[in-house]
Amino acid sequence: MIGSKIAKARKTVNMSQAQLAQLLFISPQAVGKWERGESIPDIITFNRLAEILSVDLNYFSENFQSPDNETAFKTTIGNDDEETAQGVADSSGELERQLLTNFSGGNLSQSDFAGVTAHKRKFNGSALRGSNFAGADLTGSSFSGSDIRDANFDGTNLTDCVLSANALTDSTFNKTILVRTEFSASGLGGAKFIDAHLINVTLSKTDLRRTTFENCTFNGVDFKYSDLRGLCLDGQTFVGVKFQKAALDEATFNGATLKNVSFRPTYVLTNKYYRAIKTIHFDGAMMDKLTYAALKGLGADLSKVTVIA
């Protein structure tokens, strides 16, 4: 029962087993076993499946009734033709508004959204590879479980947008407006952030090892459970930034400016964490006294750092 529901929802959003597996960071064979009824996901994975496949969590319940089986229009005895016609017209108008708001599950590869104003739109489980969002205002929109590889977000307003469990490989974010934007469990390998200002942005459970950041400012950014190993962050500015449970081995902050930056893990300090801190490069960096003291206490090499007020 559960396996067939997973397969049905996956096919509804035009997603292959391999694509779903990639977004869940598991093997395609594991998805195949679910759909054949040989195993079932754990509760955490069920939550992510619901998000990626754009279904309610109750969808996987045996007693869930699909809205498709419900009567689309209900009329009462005694309604005249005019009232019935008005009801149909109202429903058609509402459907049109929904279509303009919800682009989920669509095959929209190479689509041109450049310069559009589209607040609070939904792009969940959609094929958007190579699409152009340059200069668009997408404030409050959501992208979940979508293929957005090679997309162009240059100059796009992504304020209050949520991007969860997406493939964003090789996408560009040059001069993009990123305010309270949330990136979660998404693949950003090869993505480029150039001349971007990230304000109160969250990057959670995200692999950033092959992501490029150039001439960016990070203000109030939270790198939570993300992989930054070997990442080059040279010459950039960090203010009020948190690296929570982030992997930072061999990351470089050469020539960067750091103010009120926290490198502490969420829970206990371990020898492994101390060793990782010692591999980070801060040559030529400038940092305030509190950041300097915190890093010094963790054993970081600060011999070539300048302390600023």
Describe this structure as you would to a colleague.
With 309 residues, the protein is of the alpha/beta class. The chain has a domain of 102 residues: Orthogonal Bundle (434 Repressor (Amino-terminal Domain)), CATH 1.10.260.40. It is built from seven helices and 16 strands. The chain has a seven-stranded parallel β-sheet, with no helix packed on it. It has a seven-stranded parallel β-sheet with strand order 4-7-10-12-14-15-16. Strands 6-9 form a two-stranded parallel sheet. Helix 2 packs across helix 3. The longest helix is centred in the first third of the chain and has 21 residues. The chain is globular. About 12% of the residues have low confidence.
Summarize the topology.
Layout: H1 2-12, H2 17-24, H3 28-35, H4 43-52, H5 81-101, E1 122-124, E2 142-144, E3 162-164, E4 177-179, E5 182-184, E6 192-194, E7 197-199, E8 202-204, E9 212-214, E10 217-219, E11 222-224, E12 237-239, E13 242-244, E14 257-259, H6 271-278, E15 286-288, H7 289-297, E16 306-308
Parallel strand pairs: 1-2, 2-3, 3-5, 4-7, 5-8, 6-9, 7-10, 8-11, 10-12, 11-13, 12-14, 14-15, 15-16
Helix pairs in contact: 2-3
